[in-house]
Write the structure tokens for this entry.
Amino acid sequence: MTSPIDIEGGGTSVVVDGEQEPKTKPEEAKQLEGRSPGQLMWIRFKRDRTGVICAWVVLFYFTVSLLAPLIAKLYGKNPYTLYGVDPQHADAHPVLDDFGLPLGYFGGVSGDHWFGVEPQFGRDVFTMLLYGMRTSLYMALGVTVLLVVTGVIVGLIGGYFGGRTDYFLGRVTDFFLSFPQQLFFIAFMPVVTAFFVDPREETPTYFRALAILIVLWLLGWMPISRLVRSTVLSLREREFVEAAKVAGASPWRIVRKELLPNVVSPILIQFTYQLPSTILTIAFLSFAGVGFVEPTPDWGRMFATGADVAEQDPAFMFFPGVALVIFVLCFNLLGDSVRDALDPKSGR
Amino acid sequence: MVQFILRRTVGALVTLFLIGAATFFLFVAAPSDYASLACGKDCSPQRLEEIREALGLNLPIAQQFWDFMSGIVTGRDFPDGHCPAPCLGESFYSGDFVWSTIKDRFPLTLSLTVGAAVVFLVIGLGTGMLSAYKRGSVVDKTATGASMVLSSFQIYFLGPIALLIFVYSTGWMEDPHYVPITEDPVGWLIGLSLPMIVMATIFTAQYTRMARSSLIEQLAEEHVRTAKAKGMSQKYVFFRYAWRGSLIPIVTVFGIDLSSLLGGAVVTELTFSLQGIGRLAVDGAVNKDLPLTMGVMLVGAFAILLLNILTDITYAWIDPRIRLS
């Protein structure tokens, strides 16, 4: 009983029940080759040239930032050494002038420092960016996974059980949605950090990371929960779910075998849109001065420094900025391609 | 209609109360003793007790919360004077009344938000309409591509670039600053134009895309085709039928976006070093200043809730079929 079904607001999805796929195209019909929805999606995705290129770019970013320590080692610099202040380096190869500004052109770009050096301290921009990307990307990945899991659980429970449970969960969702998000992020970062560390002591980096995780998680799961709820709500009344109920399937089995496969596409689409926006939120926190602090290399913090020195050394921001624009652009395009592949009916 | 507004208002008040409670108890629950922070390292127990008393920190937490919340309605008396309603308490850090601080700073944030919203709605919807009208043309492709690229920029990257071009290197404009609109409307516009435009740029792209796809969908509708078929003018059909219908999803998204709009204003303020509500939030958070944080959160939430209700009323105005229920 496999059938492509159309869900209001939740996009199209296909029920997977292990049986033959009737959706094969006429020219493929003579081979009578069965294809799973996943395969069909993959074929559609591969045809989309923009999507494939963007997927490679995104993959490149993740690989490069995962290999940051290795690349930094080969390159012979690290993001913590103050090349402009440390006498060991500054005496032999001065990178900053008397005003703390990079020597040479374009923020001190040279064979030694490919992307230039940071004003005042003379840290290497290339490795700062690599490590900063690593911090941001993998933090965001963790946060997004957590958000999606929470959203799916809350949405499934609300949508499937309906009634009072749904009403209650709906009000909780509304409540969290009415928080002024960015203000809340700013205001609660120090508070949440204070839960772990005495405010008079130095906060270890990974407690800060944990605090960011908690704050973003608290105020981030609602859109996904809403999406899943509305999808499940319309699925719940469909014949195949009813059939499963009549056949005596347990709620857990219905959720797992009948409902979940149908919400995978909307979730996946949401995921590809959520990830870059989480990265930007983390960057925003560091930019506002409540996220990661000195000396942790972080993408957002580079913009805070960049904004401070923009008048004297505008080149400092060039590489982090361009890297961010390319990354976000590609991720957004990838999101569109993923949506087109998973949900061919929705036109743009 | 009246019933709808009443019900929504009650709902909003309850939400505000809950947000206040959540903010308050989270802040209090965190083991950050403001008194000892304010007192510094060499603090005698006696001095500590004095500070606690002055700030009302020695009272039970429920009492403190009640004092704060009731103060919003009735006003409160502090040792250094009466704080008239709506009283959001006295800043731990500066000792000023929070409400008057916010009253000073909020107009800036509001100006930024409204100004940017006007810019991006006009430009975004205009470009989107043009794109949809000339679908597939060079204009359409350029607009779609440009909006895609522009939406990938961030305020904290675009802001310094704009400053560099228009302020630092050419000197065409002064550093962005705020002049109250009531004093000098022209100065207000000139002072904030750069931040407004930078903030609007980020949002424009999204609305261009949305307006375009929504209009294309509407143009394919049966009633639009019928109107064309019976010989109505292109222009009339476009504006009277298609455009109006395409506004509904845009208003929906605008309503959902309000909180990120406020967020955008906060980022813009921080980028251009303007003293608005975002700076206050950072100050409150960094100094562990509970009344200030409470005030900022409540005013922010209030603005969002109010605008949400207005959005819902706008719906009914655009599409009379939607009942306010």
About this structure: Chain B has a mean pLDDT of 82. DSSP finds twelve helices and two strands in chain B. Residues 1 and 23 of chain B are 32 Å apart (CA to CA). Chain B touches chain A through 53 residues (CB under 8 Å).
